[in-house]
Structure formats: C-alpha cells, structure tokens
Amino acid sequence: MGHPACSFPHRLQSPKIGKRQKKIDQTRASGSEVRARESQGRRMAMASAPACAASELVAKGRRSAAFLQAMLGQQPASGAGATPHGVQDLADEILRCCDRALAALHGATVAAAGSAKKRKPEHGPAATPATSSKRIRLSGGERAIRRVEKKWTMEDGFIWRKYGQKDIHGSKYPRLYFRCTYKEDHGCMARRQVQQSEADPSVYLINYFGEHTCCRDDDIVAESPAPFVINFGASTRDGQPSGSPWPSCNEDDGQVVSETSDLCHSPEEKELPACMGNVAELSEQSTTVPELTSMSMSSPEWDPSDGRLVWDIGFGEILFDDIIGEFTPLDYVGLFQ
DNA sequence: TTCATTTGACCGTA
DNA sequence: TACGGTCAAATGAA
C-alpha cells in the first residue's frame, strides 16, 4: 500500500542493500514459519498489551489511593484519631504519581489536549502547535508529509527499531533514527526521528515519516490483542465511587474511533482519542498550544459545588468534562472522589 | 543463538 | 565542504 509519504530514499537500492538483504534472507531461511509468526505475535502483543496492562494496574493503584485519601478525609479533623498531615500528603503524592504514570503511558497528551482546548490565544507568544504537518525534503530528494509531535515519552504504541543516531549541529541532544520493526516483514516504511527538546529535555520532539502499513495486514490484525478500549466505569450520577476516570483495558463498548489524519496514528492514538487525548488532532483543531515546558500536572480534583472533576495543569483549572465531553457522552464518565 | 543497539563510515544535498 | 540521513559491522543483551 503506497503512500506518497512512504517513499524511501533511493539509496536503499544501492549494492549495500543487496548485502544486507542477503543477511536478512539468511535469517529468514534459518527460522521456521511458525517461529516467525510467534515472534510476530509477541511483537504485536508488546506493542499494546504491556501498555494496556500497565495502564490498568496504575489505574487500579490510583483508585486505591483515591479511596485511601477519601478514608483519610473522613477522619475527624481533630482528636485522637486525627490523620497525620504527612499521611494525607502521601496519599496526594501517590495520586499524582499515578496520574503522571498514566499520562506517560499514553504519551502524556492529555495535558496538551486539555490546555489546547482551554487556552486562549493571548496566552504566551511562544505557543506553537504540538503537532504540525508540512512538506520537507528527504535525503533522497523526494518530498513527503511529516508529522511533528511533542511528547513526554518516546512511546507511541508502535515497535520501532533504531537504526542510527546523529549529533546535530548546534543541538545539545543527538537525533535518534527509528524505522518500523516490520519494515522487513511487511515492508512498512514508517520512520521517525526523535530528539529531546533543548528547552525542556523531558519533552521529545518526534518527527514521523511515512505511513504504517504493518498494522493493516489482516493476519496481524487477527493476532493483535483487543484494541485499547476506554472504560470510564459505569455511570455514577448518584455519586458513588465506581472507578477511575482514567482509561483502562476493557472489553465493554464505548470505544471511540477518531478520525485518521494523513498519516497512520499509533494504535493508542486511534483507540484513545478520549480522555488521554490525541495531541495531534487536538492541537490541529486549535491554532495554539501552550508551551509544554510551563505545564505542571496534578490530580484532577473533585469540585463538589458543581459535581465536576477539575484538572489543574498549570494553565488555570480545566474541567475534566471539557476533556472527556469532547469525545464521549458524559454518562460514560465515572466520576469518583 | 538470535536479535536489537551502537557507532563509524559512506553518500547525497545544499 | 558541512551537514544530515542511512548503512552495516561490531557489540551486547536475552
């Protein structure tokens, strides 16, 4: 399946490639078909299952911490049974850590997503889209669409194979070159370049080139685990705690499929437009996005006055409803305290 | 033993 | 000629 953006540099047809292809062919000849498929299945599982499981575990941990916090809050404010302040702080810290872990697991896109929605254009001159598409010239001379993303993690749900690293002139951090692991198996031409932001080393600037064709193979689709489904828990209009507002792995309905862009999104981006958000799409909807460097995440907090989760990400408070409601009916959102 | 990563070298472009 | 992108042998990890 060809995509204009997938055209590979013509150097790949050099004699060197013949040498490399020979090695690859040898490797293939030595391995049985069964082993290859097992390996393939393992890799595909690695692509999403661990993140899924980790997300679920962290969400569980967060629920437990939230209950603990609630229990502590029910303790009398004074008297013999009063909760030590440090314990409350500890519970808060656990919640924050869980939030950040979840954010990291899903590309930490929600902060940018939420802020992109709430943020007013006059907030800061340095606002730049976290994602952009433009045409650039590749080394081979051809042009291709690329997508640029800012993320707090290099993980995007795909399995990448690093094939190079280069110190970039005038840049403090090297640029890492990745191609899809399934380039040889499925001819997937997706590539990406990852470089740490100089302004904020915790932020990765990721350039995507080409389109993932590996994820379209029927056999892989059949082997791959169930798509990452968002479960916000049962409707809790009665206010009963029923689960985390964070996504978790669930076979229930409620899967929301986002529109696709010109490039293949990662499975998680496809399956998880809600809650954790998709920085690419959301940022494309808005013209400006706040600088990631100035954002600080904290736990969403329950506002009993109007029954909403409020999320302070450093740009003033953002209503959790605003993030979730963008994609999914609020009835799906299980609010918890 | 297999596979992924590292890293120096090579090549094309500006 | 400088720079960026890619290759592929060497190396290390599982």
UniProtKB/TrEMBL annotation:
Disordered, as annotated region: 1-45, 112-135
Pfam families, per database record: WRKY (PF03106)
Subcellular localization: Nucleus
Domain of life: Eukaryota
Recorded GO MF terms: DNA binding
Ranges for domain WRKY: 149-212
Annotated keywords: DNA-binding, Nucleus, Transcription, Transcription regulation
GO cellular component, one term: nucleus
Protein name per Swiss-Prot or TrEMBL: WRKY domain-containing protein
